Amino acid sequence: MRPRHGRRAGRWLVGRLLGAVFVLWAVATLIFFAIRLVPGDPAEAILGGPGSQASAEALDTVRRQYGLDQPLLVQYLAQLARLATGDLGTSYSLRTDVGRLLLDQLPGTIGLALLALVVAWALAIVTAWWATLSGRVASAVSSGLEVVASAVPHFWLASLLILVFSTELGLLPPVSTGTPAGLVLPVVTLAIPVAGFLGQVTRDSLLDAAATPFALSARARGESPSGLFTRHLLRHAALPGLALSGWAFGSLLSGAVVVESVFARPGLGRTLLGAVTLRDIPLVTGVALVSALAYVLVVALGDLSERAVDPRGRAT
Amino acid sequence: MTVLPDLPRGTESARASSGRRTSLGHRARRLPLGPAEWVAAAALLLVVVMAVAPRLLAPGDPLAVSPVDAFSGPSFAHPFGTDESGRGVWTRVVHGAGASLTIGLVATLIGTGLGVALGVLAGLGGRGLAGRATDVGVSRLLEVLFALPGLLLALVVIAFTGPGAVPATIAVGLATAPGYARIVRSQVAAVRRSAMVEAATVLGRHPAVVLWRHVLPNALAPVVVLATLGLGQAVVWASSLSYLGLGSPPPAPEWGAMLSAGRTYLAVAWWMTVFPGLAVVVTAASATVLGRGLARRGRGGTR
Description:
The structure holds 2 protein chains of 2 kinds.
Chain A: H1 3-37, H2 42-46, H3 56-65, H4 72-84, H5 98-133, H6 136-151, H7 154-168, H8 180-210, H9 213-220, H10 225-243, H11 245-262, H12 268-278, H13 281-309
Helix pairs in contact in A: 1-13, 5-6, 5-8, 5-11, 5-13, 6-8, 7-8, 7-11, 8-10, 8-11, 9-10, 10-13, 11-12, 11-13, 12-13
Chain B: H1 11-18, H2 35-52, H3 54-57, H4 89-124, H5 128-146, H6 151-161, H7 165-192, H8 195-202, H9 207-243, H10 255-264, H11 271-299
Helix pairs in contact in B: 1-9, 1-11, 2-4, 2-11, 4-5, 4-7, 4-9, 4-11, 5-7, 6-7, 7-9, 8-9, 9-10, 9-11, 10-11
C-alpha cells in the first residue's frame, strides 16, 4: 500500500470516529432535554411513576440523590461527564448498573442481527440469481415474493412460523431455548423482510448490469450464464445492497424488539421494550446509545466492504 | 446517478427523480398500469371501503360480546372465526380498517410533512455561510436520527409520551421523517443546479418565484410516490407498536391490537392471528406495488 493510500485511510478512520462521537453526543443530548420537555417529575418516575404516590420527603431525597435539584446545565454537563467515562447510570426499574446490564444483553442481539443479515443476503442473492437465470415467469414470481416479504410485519411472520413449525409440525421450539434449534425461527423471522428489500434492490441492479456492454462482451467470449452471474454481474449487483447494509442492520435491530418479545428471547430489544413500558429513562438512554453505536459501526463496515467490492470508490 | 441508501422502497422513485425526464414541464409517456398494479389498487380500494363504510361489508357490532360463540373456527356465520369473547374476527377486521388506515395515513402525513420541511431547509442552504450551516446542521440531525432506525426511534419517543394510539401515530411519523427528508434534500439540491433554474434566474426572476414555481414542484413530485410506498411501512410499524401493547388499547378493533390479543390463543385459534395479519400484509404490499407502479410511470420507462 502506498503512503498516500495509508493517509487517506487514516483520514477516513478519523472522520468516522468523530462522526460516531458526534452521533452519541447528539443522542444523549436529545434524550436529556426531551425528558425535561415532557410533563412529569423525573423524581416521581424514579420512584415508580405517578401511581406510586411517593411522599414529599422521599421525592426530596431522590432529587438530592440524583442531582435533580441542581441547575439544568449542571445536570447536563454532569450527565455528559458520566457518559464520557462509560458510566450509563442506574436503571430506575431494575436498580442495577445499566452498562453491565446492556453488556449482558448485547451479544445475543448483535449475534441474532448479524446471523439474520447473512441469511437475508443469502436469500436475496439466491432469488436474484434464480430470477435472472430463468426467464420472465421466475422474475415475476420472485418480484411478487419480494414485495410480500418486505411488507410482512415481523410479529405476524413469527406467529405463522410458530404455528407451522412448532404447533403443527413440532419441529422447532416456539420460544428461544438457547439451543441452535431455538435460534432458527427468530433468525428466519428477522431475515425474511430484509431479504425482500435486498432482493428487490439487487435484482434491479442485476438487470441493469446484465444490459451493460461488458456483460454482452463476456457472453460473446463464451462465458456461461452462471459464470457471468458469479464473475461479472454479482459484484455490480451487490453494490446498492451493500450501500443498504447499514439500513438493513438498523431494520434488523428494530425488528429485534418485536422478535425478541415474541420468542421470549433476552436481548437489547426486549430490554428496550421493558424500559419504554416502565419509562425507565436511564435504561432507554443506554439502549439508544448502544444501538446507535452499533449502527454507526455497521455503516462504517458496509462502507469498507463497498470499497472492497468497487474499485471506483477508492479514488475518493 | 445517485443511489439513495435510505427508504429502499423509494429506490425506484429516487432513480426516477434523478433522471432528467421528470423536470421541464413536458409529461412523461403515460404507461398503462399492469395487472399487479390493478390488483393492488383494487385491494386498497377495498380497504378504503372498509374504513369509510364498515357496515356495508360487516353489519355486526365489532364490540358485541357473545361468550357462547367463543373460539369457533371460520364458518358461514363468521367467515374469519370468532375471538375469545365470541366477537366475529371478520367484523373486527373490517371495522379495524378505519383505525389502522387512519394511523397509517396520519403518520405518513407527519413523516412527509416533517421530511419535506427539513429536506427543503437543507437543500436550499448552500448560498452563503448561514445557508451552508443550515444544510450541515440538518444533515447532521438526520444522521443522528438514522442511527436510531425505525421502531427504535418510535420506542424512544413513546418512552417520553407514554403509550396510546395518538403517541404511537406521532412516533411512527417521526420515525419515517428522516428517510423522506434525505431524499427531498438531494432532490431540491439537484433541481436547484438544473439548467431550468439557471435560465429562470438569468431571466431575472425573483428567487422566491424561482423557488415556488420551479424548484418546489419538481423537487416534491417524487414525494407523492414515496408517501404511497411509505404508507405500507407506516401501517406495519403502527400495528407492530399496537402488538407490543404501546398503541391502541385492546378492546378497540385495530389490527395490531387484535393480533396482540390473538398471540395468547395462537395454539387454539389460529384465525385470530392469521386474518388480521393478512389485512396488514395486503394493505402494505398493495401500497408498495402501487407506489412502485407510480414510480415506473413517472420514469416513463418499462421494466
